[in-house]
Amino acid sequence: MKLGLMLGVVSDPKKQVELALEAERLGYDSVWFGEIYGSDCFTPLTWIGSQTTRLKLGTSIMQLSARTPANAAMTATTLDLFSEGRLILGIGVSGPQVVEGWYGQPYGKPLARTREWISLFRKMIAREGPVDFEGEYFQLPLDGGTGLGKPLRLITHPYRREIPIYLGAEGPKNVALGAELCQGWVPMFISPYRMEVYEVPLSKADASFEIAATITVSVNDDLEAALAPIKQQVGFYAGGMGAKSYNLHKNHIARLGFADAAEEIQNLFMSGERMRAFEAVPDEFADEISLSGSKDRIRERLQDWEKSPVTSLLVSVQDVETLRFLAEELL
């Protein structure tokens, strides 16, 4: 199993660079940054990429609504060129709260939009000729306008003709789309004990398909204290990252067997009782989706992850000591 370092969004740049450099020294395979409605994902990866030589540089997750396929093709090609082929492009549609509330884009049909986006992005970086495209969401040249647009070809010659795309997905149809079209999947809130939930959606994946699971690591001999930040994270996503009628994260938790708890979490969170919402997150669920507790306990739980279909653990850690501990156990 490969180890990746998940640094999330930019919080403490100096500390995050320190962790990334130590991760490369220890033999970690990759480092990942995400974006929601704050820092972007490419700038910190570019900064870290300039100071490393081997770490793969992953976006988890680049927001599809933030960039047209053309903008993403230019950005991804440039970073892949400078890093000599180290980019992994993790992409996702997010939810309507962020897509329409922050990016000002219509949410529409996320599966159809993702399929078109991937097709157009790949066509652009392949450079087989001037790009024309006629889709529901994307048209090149643009329909309407001045009528002066013409098909163009990416000027920059990519380091690789195909940059690996990993899809951030939770729903079965979205996971199945990733298995069909992408080189990998970046799941959120995944349990190695409930992988049968994804058996059908992943049936189209080939043998080289990667599952890069983001896992928060919380080391504390007091298990209850160790689980507290995990429960807070779950409570925030299930309760606040979506509307009452449409919350992808809540639906995902329900599919994993915790439907009643997910409903309670959302109700409490939306009524303003955030602490009670966090407390309503089942210890069992928080424990399964994380590596929490004493080092001995984490060492035992790592064996369960190694037996699962997950190919990379993208560990979210806050200190060098934990970074080294995980390297010693897995690398």
Written overview of the protein:
With about 325 residues, the protein is an alpha/beta fold. The relative contact order is 0.13. β6 and β7 form a beta hairpin. It contains twelve helices and twelve strands. About 45% of the residues lie in helices and about 15% in strands. The protein has a single domain (about 1-220, about 295-330), classed as Alpha-Beta Barrel (TIM Barrel), CATH 3.20.20.30. The longest helix has 23 residues, at about 250-270. It has helices at about 15-25, 40-50, 70-80, 95-100, 110-125, 170-180, 225-240, 250-270, 275-280, 285-290, 295-305, 320-330; strands at about 1-5, 30-35, 55-60, 60-65, 85-90, 135, 140, 165-170, 185, 210-220, 290-295, 310-315. α1 (about 15-25) runs parallel beside α12 (about 320-330), α3 packs across α5 (about 110-125) and α7 (about 225-240) packs across α8 (about 250-270). The strands form two sheets. Strands 1-2-3-5-8-9-10-12 form an eight-stranded parallel beta barrel, surrounded by seven helices. The model has no long low-confidence stretch (mean pLDDT about 95).
